[in-house]
Amino acid sequence: MKTRIFAHRGASQYAPENTMPAFELAYEMNADGIETDVQLTKDHIPVLIHDENVRRTTNGIGFVQDYTLQEIIQLDAGSWFSSSFTNTSIVTLEKFLQWISPKSLKLNLELKNNVIDYKNLESIVYNMVKDYGLLERTVFSSFNPKSMERMYKLDPAANTAFLTTSKIRRLTQFTRSIGCNGLHIKYRILSSQLVEECRKTGLDLRVFTVNRPAQMDRCYKFKCAGLFTDVPDFALKQRSSLPN
Ligand code: G3P
Ligand code: MG
């Protein structure tokens, strides 16, 4: 099985992260899937944005959770990146699912609830994905282990992955114990030992954020289940140059 290439926040090297232009570009580049970050507005609508505060990626200030949907979609989420993306807006999860549904792309919905543990984020996101018939194509992930336990309770068959940047003791056993069948790690903790442990425990190992050719090659050599990259075009080129 080839390592699947997920566009990290869309093709985020080329267009503002987590916006439709970044997702469209990932699709045009032939990425295998898209990773995006989900949070809730004040009126409990799931929207795609990485930071808890809108300041870095929009012309607004303050927290996502303090904006209603009507307010947050007025923000300009493109100008910070380049003037050619002026007036690009924040996308709702619903719009994203509508867009991706007829395409063959995989999805990784990262629940951004490790800083603010949004109430019912798991069930809101899960039910929407289910309504669109996209459960099989979706991996739900989080840095918050409690969230993954809640997701397991909702549906033990859902694809879930624990996200981590550090190699804690018994990481693979811990990941299994919270009900996940995937582990998403920062590139710097990738090792042959961890690859082997994941294989033994039946965990799908995916790696973030992999932007350099040598890093990509290592993920391919280890036959990781997936990698997340801001440059899916490079990752595809690099993968196609490998011997079969
Ligand atoms: O889901 C992989 C990766 O996106 C996790 O880190 O901070 O880029 O959301 P971050
Ligand atoms: Mg993410």
Automatic annotation (TrEMBL):
Gene3D superfamilies: Phosphatidylinositol (PI) phosphodiesterase
Species in which this protein is naturally found: Salinibacillus aidingensis
GP-PDE domain span: 3-239
InterPro entries (UniProt xref): GP_PDE_dom, PLC-like_Pdiesterase_TIM-brl
Protein name in UniProt: Glycerophosphodiester phosphodiesterase
Source superkingdom: Bacteria
